[in-house]
Design brief:
This protein is an alpha+beta fold and 186 residues long. The chain contains 5 helices and 8 strands. It has an 8-stranded mixed β-sheet with strand order 1-2-3-4-5-6-8-7, sandwiched between helices. It comes from Kribbella orskensis.
Length: 186
């Protein structure tokens, strides 16, 4: 199974490794203010190599068990974003949830759109999933545009859906149907 894609001439999408903990922590420090309105309140350990190494160990164990795919966007030797499929459900549901972020220094280059599209294609062709769901805060219009460009449609809204930036926040819910294959069909 190949879960790697070149997104641009200088950005690679690949599955995270334990060796990426320091680079991810540095990216989180660099993007702390940029990401704060869109993410849960993070402990100080989140911004350290040790904290990320512990998190990566758990996440990579879940990846090995087919429950999550933790991709990083890498430019040179820097982590410049992440795409994560979580709660991968096999069987008749064949569904997953998508979360993502892009480095503040690379905004406006279409990188999120390219990465979401690549993840959707890999979820279909390599992971053999049927659908991907995603949620955005109601006011996160930029992320909603990315999802819509990638074939996601809004399927509803949910009040007090996620605890983000210290408060329960309303979200729009999206999904993309990847295919109509029956489970197990090639």
């Amino acid at each position: 199974m190949t879960l790697e894609r070149s997104l641009t001439s200088d950005v690679l999408l690949r599955v995270a490794t334990l060796d990426d903990a320091a680079g991810f922590a540095a990216a989180q420090v660099r993007n702390r203010d940029h990401l704060a309105p869109w993410e849960p309140v993070r402990s100080e350990a989140w911004f350290t190599e040790a904290g990320q190494k512990e998190r990566f160990q758990a996440q990579l164990e879940r990846h090995k068990n087919g429950q999550v795919v933790p991709w990083l966007m890498i430019s040179g030797d820097r982590v410049v974003g992440a795409m994560t499929l979580t709660d991968i459900v096999p069987g008749p549901f064949r569904s997953t949830s998508l979360g993502y972020w892009v480095d503040v220094e690379l905004l406006g280059r279409g990188l999120a759109t390219k990465a979401v599209q690549a993840v959707a294609e890999l979820a279909d062709t390599e992971l053999r999933l049927h659908r991907i769901e995603a949620s955005t805060l109601v006011e996160n219009v930029a992320s909603q545009r990315v999802l819509e460009k990638c074939g996601f449609v809004q399927i509803g809204s949910a009040p007090d859906y996620l605890h983000i930036a210290g408060a329960w926040r309303d979200c729009h819910l999206f999904q993309r149907i990847l295919n109509t294959r029956a489970p197990g069909e090639i």
